[in-house]
Amino acid sequence: MTNHLPTIDRRRPARRLGLLAGIGLALILAAAPARAEGDPVAGEAIYKRCGGCHSIDRNRVGPKHEGLFGRKAGSVPGFDYSKAMRQSGIVWDDATLDRFLENPRAVVPGTKMTYAGVKDAQERADLIAYLKQATKPAAP
Ligand code: HEC
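^ thats the input. predicted complex w/ heme C below
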């Protein structure tokens, strides 16, 4: 009997840690949609990481980004997308870009975009704010 009590006591901190981790995760998930507004000026600098493959107005290693928002993934004429991207069913907006850019190959398995992603949420918000301005289709 006296042997049981210390055993239970020793287990408790581990359980409390598990609970805290669960609460922490819930808080992170709840806070995600309320992330700070992106800064397009900072985003322009981050877009340089994409510049090895992308440009706004012409297809290169990656498709051009002009007209990105509201566009179906894999739909720029003349660009040879992966089947995975064409069939992803994604429409690009703040939320889908945020998810894709965090981890491209996890969100679109089989994508030809061999880029690890932008792991920092604020950097993604800045990048998306920049893209929103810079990818507006040119006036006809
Ligand atoms: C190593 C080259 C490379 C880099 C670096 C890269 N991309 Fe890509 N990206 C691609 C390729 C290739 C595709 C086409 C993917 C496919 O067809 O599966 C693509 C596709 C995309 C798409 C989908 C476009 C569409 O028309 O559906 C977006 C959005 C995108 N990239 C954004 C970015 C951003 C933002 C960055 C920088 C943070 C970046 N990419 C960095 C090569 C790259």
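The mean pLDDT is 87.
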